[in-house]
Amino acid sequence: MTTAQSSVSVAPVQKLHFFQHIPALDGLRGIAILLVLIHNAGHFGAHPSGAFWVTALIAAIGWVGVQLFFVLSGFLITAKLLETQDAPNYFSVFFGRRILRIFPLYYAALIVGLLIVPAITQQPAGGEASTSHQVWLWTFLLNWVHPLGLPTYGFPHFWSLAVEEQFYLIWPFIVYKATQTTLARTCYALIAAALVIRTVLALGGATEDMIYEFTFCRMDALAMGALLAVWLQSPDRTRLLQEKAAARLIPAAFAIVLLGAVFSRLYTRSLLFTQTLGYTLLAVFFALILLACLIGTSKLNRWCRQFLSTSLLRSLGKYSFAMYVFHFPIQLRLESFLPLFEQRFAAWSGIAFLVVVGLASYVAAFFSYHLYEKHFLRLKSWFTPRARLEPSQSELPRHA
To answer: Which residue range or ranges hold the Acyltransferase domain (predicted)?
Structure first.
């Protein structure tokens, strides 16, 4: 008697649904890149007056845009990790998609700035020192050595990308298999630890840049965003927040940030209060605004979402990564023309310079995205999370 071969049908692998796209979050990214750009490219003199005082004030506190980026990253990364937590390709999905988003543009910028440009043109003052310390840029470790005085001409702003990459390297392993309760407690612990570490460093004589750039000093913002993602995994908690707190989120956020502004003299980075509790208050502020965009149903929350969903802010948010990469090198190249700006635009030279840097950064980011980055982003389809098969669905063929 011969044996007839039969098999039990295996259900096809199902794809998990990614966290839905929320237009207002693009607008928050747009706000963040505007704050950073105004901060880095602002040239308004020591004592601006009139309408320029407002612009100079925004430029002085624009560094808080990085704190907003951190809160957004903590939230979005954690939300997607939690959504794909049960996927058998959990790690390959996360790291594959992050590499495709960050590495092509990041390393292209380094190749052009550190290898090609020095080979064909004379390096500007400081360029050679930056080239000699480039290993820290290639390895995403700049934030640990830049505060110690190692120059990185053209790329000092890459410290924040280093912080985020270090977060991306560690956080997936913490989220993997963790329960919501454990993950929430981890976030609380990281927020408290960051505050304690900054306080110890500040009282111990650490420099302003150390507290500003060291990863463990900024992890409360990342953890604050991650905590929101954990909270919103629970429908009951989300419903409770909507019913009890949604209408108070934005007023509470501004009350907190204004209170901090009073004690920190408008978040002056060199002050002890800013370096300690001020950073945490800013993280809470941005987290509450983010939460209002996600669950708020009041008129004020709807207005906030509508404002952040405007086409201009969403467009800035879409290209914010490339704008962040390009804006500082563009600014350095254009600073040689500052005397011409002052001669041509007089009192308006600072505004004119800022507009030119902003437009140039946006145009460069636009073409970078559509001519270069987009082709790598299409490859993300190779890293789609799969649903874990039940044991009954993964049985091997049986023989009769």
So the answer is: 23-367
